[in-house]
Amino acid sequence: MLATEATLEAQRAIAICNACRYCEGYCAVFPAMELQRDFTVTDMSYLANLCHNCNGCYHACQFSPPHAFGINLPKTFAEIRLESYAEYAWPKPFADAYRKNGVLVSAITAGSIALVLFLTMLIQSGSVMFGPQTGPGAFYRIIPWGVMSSVAGATLIFSILALAMGARNFWVDTQTSLSGPINWAAIERAAHDVATLRYLGGAGEGCNDADASFSLARRHFHHALMYGFLLCFASTSVATLMDHFLGWEAPYSWYSLPVVLGTLGGIGMVAGCGGLVWVKMTTDPVPVARRMLGADYALLGLLAMAAASGLLLLMLRGTGAMGVLLCLHLGFILAFFVTMPYGKFVHGIYRGAALLKAAVERQKNTIVAG
Ligand code: SF4
Ligand code: SF4
User: Fold this and answer.
1) Which residue out of 55, 59, 197, 355 has the highest number of ligand 2 atoms within 8 Å of its CB and is therefore the one to mutate?
2) Taking the CB of residue 54, how many other CB atoms lie within 10 A of it?
3) How far is the CA of 336 from the centre of ligand 2 (A)?
4) Quick check: 296 and 74 in contact, CB under 8 A?
5) Looking at the 3D structure of the chain, how many domains does it have?
6) Could you read off the pLDDT of 273-313 as tens digits, one per residue?
7) Ligand nearest to the Cα of 60, by number
8) Is the pLDDT score of 57 beyond 50?
C-alpha cells in the first residue's frame, strides 16, 4: 500500500492515540494498535478496515476538531478504506472503479436494465412480453432458463473470484511479525464479531451518528440488510435446487420455501437500506469522508431497488406487467453481480479479513505473554 495524505494523517493520529489510550475499550482498533509501537502504511490499511465507523472515538476525544491536534479517526480511516479497496482490487486495471464509484455503479445499473430490456424485447413478441404468463415455467417464457442461468452464473463466478483475490491481496499485504497461522478459535471469534456486528454496538449503547448521543439504529438497520440479503441468497439457492434437481419450475406458491425466504429477505433489505440512508443523511458531517458517500449511496440504492423490484415482481407475477418487471429485476441483479467486487460491497470482505487478523494477533499475543 502506498503512502497518501490520509495514511500520513492516520500515522500522526495513531501515535497520539497510542500514548493516550483513552478509547482502548471502544472497538477492535485500539487493542490492535496497542500491540505495536511503530506503524507502517500497511498497518493503516489494516486498522482502517478494522474500524466500523461508529464515531465513538471522535465524540469521546478531547483532541478532536476544533482542537489543534484535529484527531478525526472515523473520517481518516474511511478515506484509507476507500484507497485500500482500489489498492487490492483484482484485476488491477479495475482499481479505477473506485474513483467516481457512485457515478459508475449508477451508469452500470442503468446500462444493465437497458440491455436486459432491449435484448428481451428483441427476441420476444409483444404478446409474450406484455401478455399475462402463468403456471410452471412462466418466467422462462420471457427469458429462457439457459440464458438467465448462464449470464448470472458467469458474472457471479467472476465476481466471487475477484472478491477472493482482493481478500488475498489484503491478507498478504497486511502480514507482519505479529501475524500467526489461522486457526478455528480465531475463525470462530471473527465469525461471531461479523454475525453480531459487534463493533456497531459500542459498549452496548451503539454508535454516535447524529451527535454524541448513542443509538443502535445503525446496527439494527445493518442487521436487517445483512440478514435480508442472506435470506434472499438462500431463497435463490433453494429455488435453483428445486428447479434443477426436482424439476419444479418457478413461479412457486406464496407458501413455498423460496417465496417465504425471498419475501422476508426482500422486506429486510428494503427496510435496512432505507434506514441506513436515513442514518447517513442525518449523521454529523464532520467525521464523515465525503469521498466515500457516492459508493455508500450507490450500493444502498442498488440493493434497495433489487429487493423492491423482486417484491413487486412477486406481487404482479400473474399480470401483463410481469415481463417488464422481470427484466427490471434481472437488470438490477446483473448490475449488482458486475459491481460487487468494485463497489462498497467489498467492505464486508475486508472488514471480515481484518477481524480475523485481529483475532489471530490477539490470540498469539496472549499465548506469547502467557
Ligand atoms: S481518539 Fe482521542 S481520546 Fe481516543 S485514544 Fe485517540 S487521542 Fe485518545
Ligand atoms: S470510529 Fe468507532 S470503530 Fe472506528 S476507530 Fe473510532 S471507536 Fe473504533
Assistant:
1) 55
2) 23
3) 29
4) no
5) 1
6) 999 999 999 999 999 999 999 999 999 999 999 999 999 99
7) 1
8) yes
